[in-house]
Structures are given as structure tokens and as C-alpha cells.
Amino acid sequence: MALKAKDHKLRFRPHFKTHQSADIANWFRDSGVTAITVSSVSMASYFASHGWNDITIAFPVNLREIDDINRLAGDIRLNLLVENEYSLELLSEQLTSPAGIYIEIDTGYHRTGIDSIKTARIDLLLKRILKNRLMQFKGFLSHSGQTYAATSRELIVSRHTDALMKMRSLKEFYHTEFPDLEISLGDTPACSVCDNWQGADEIR
Length: 204
What we know:
Blueprint: H1 2-7, E1 11-12, H2 22-30, E2 36-38, H3 41-48, E3 54-60, H4 66-75, E4 77-82, H5 85-94, E5 99-106, E6 114-115, H6 119-131, E7 135-142, H7 153-174, E8 182-185, H8 188-193, E9 202-203
Parallel strand pairs: 1-9, 2-3, 3-4, 4-5, 5-6, 5-7, 7-8, 8-9
Helix pairs in contact: 3-4, 5-6
């Protein structure tokens, strides 16, 4: 997967939620991995204590853990995920160290995230992010979990293509205002079998 990411000029930010092991994590370093994904603050803390300093928590921010979030953000390059105005408002009031912010987009899984066509709602989040000097808008992140239920390679490719087009449309829509915004996609089926990643910047 590291080679595939390199071939497609993508950042490879593997998800460590499966192994949750500092020893196994070292294998990834051997493949040139420097940035990782986790699914909780506690997992981020664990890997940060083992030398990983570029971590995305790919789960909507939990403000009950704000003290740990602030501690981590003060020590490493931490990226957080937001999907609604309420949690973003509280985060902006309580964040004490710089953090990257991704807006989660629903590309068809319908578990979390904002529908990609609801740009008015996305605009509200962006305005709030830009008001806080500690928040750096990184871009849009999506977990296309609908690919896991696909019953064929062709269906995986079809669902991935649909998700990629939605994310690419958002990137193009906001490109003038945010020329450096990134698209981060993460689902094992698509990463495994798909070759079209045009417009994406990172795979998880």
C-alpha cells in the first residue's frame, strides 16, 4: 500500500486501529510512513508516546476529552475531525494549542459526516474555523464504508468512483478560497483494488 500511494503521489496515512501496537507500528516506519490515523484520543496518546508526531483522529471530536486533546495538540501535529456546528463551537472555545481541522463528508455510508452537496452548512463550519487562529483548515475527509458491503470488485470500484467524484467536486468548489485544501479518503476495499485517485491527496 505504501508503494501504491507513492505511485499515485498520495500521502499514505495508515489506520492503526487494527493492530494498536507500537512494535507493529515500527514496521510501517520501515516503509517510510511518518503520518498515521487512529480512532480515539487514547490511541493517539499511546502512539504519540512511542514517537509518532503526525496523527489524525478520524472520528468526530469528543469534547469530553478536551484536556487530553489540548495536551496532544501541544506536543504533536494533531488533526481533528468535525461534522457539526455545535461541537466545532465548543472546540473553538476550549482549544488551547494549534490543531489541523478536517470536515467530515458523507459520501454514501450515511454513518457520520455532512452530505457533500450541503455547501451552505459546510460554509458555516468554515467561517467558524477561520475565526480561530489555533484552527488550521486542512480539507475534507471521508470514510467510504459503503465499499465494505460490495459483492464484487466492480461494485467496489463503482462506489469508490462515486465517492471520489463527490470529494473532488468539493475540492474544486472551494479551491479558489482554499487552494491548499486536501482530500483524505480511507476504506480498505477501495485502497486495495482501485487505481483512480485523481484529486485525492491522502489515503488512510
